[in-house]
Structures are given as structure tokens and as C-alpha cells.
Design brief:
Layout: H1 3-39, H2 72-75, E1 82-83, E2 88-89
Antiparallel strand pairs: 1-2
Length: 92
């Protein structure tokens, strides 16, 4: 092989090994750094809760209505358009 090609290949190999080593060191240091940051946080002050404050209900929170079923559309709608009991296709 020519000297130029070998030197270029070696340079590429050592550069990629160096980058992999830097990534490995970052992966090892990051969790320890996060643990150190979490241990040095000041304690959070709790503010009094206002009982008259409006509340927001999330899309997947439990409903206050006992008849409400979040999965009703999933289990009670034929999403495939086939009546599996009789084996016939539905019109719509």
C-alpha cells in the first residue's frame, strides 16, 4: 500500500476511536453529574393550596361520571368494518 493511504486510514481510525472514547466518557459522567446536581438542589417551598382554585382534568384522568368509559369507542365500535359474528362486511 501507499504511505499516504495508510496514514489517512490510521488518522481516520484514531479520530473515530477518540470520538468514541469522548462519547463513552460523557455517558459515564452524565448520570453522576445529574445525581450530584439533584443532591445540591435547595429544598422546594410548598405553597398553600387554594380550595377555590379551578382544577384541570387530563384526557386520561378518571372521570367523575360513573357511567363514563374511556375505552367505549375502542371496545364498542367495529373499526375494521367487518361483522365478525356473521362474517359480512358492513355498509358504513
Amino acid at each position: 500500500m501507499e504511505n499516504g493511504i495508510v496514514s489517512t486510514l490510521l488518522r481516520v481510525m484514531f479520530t473515530s476511536l477518540g470520538l468514541m472514547a469522548v462519547i463513552m466518557i460523557c455517558c459515564l459522567i452524565t448520570p453522576r453529574l445529574a445525581k450530584w446536581i439533584d443532591s445540591h438542589k435547595p429544598p422546594k417551598k410548598e405553597e398553600p393550596v387554594d380550595p377555590n382554585a379551578p382544577t384541570v382534568q387530563g384526557a386520561f384522568d378518571k372521570s367523575s361520571e360513573p357511567e363514563y368509559d374511556l375505552n367505549y369507542k375502542i371496545y364498542h365500535k367495529d373499526i375494521y368494518g367487518v361483522d365478525f359474528k356473521n362474517g359480512k362486511e358492513k355498509d358504513g
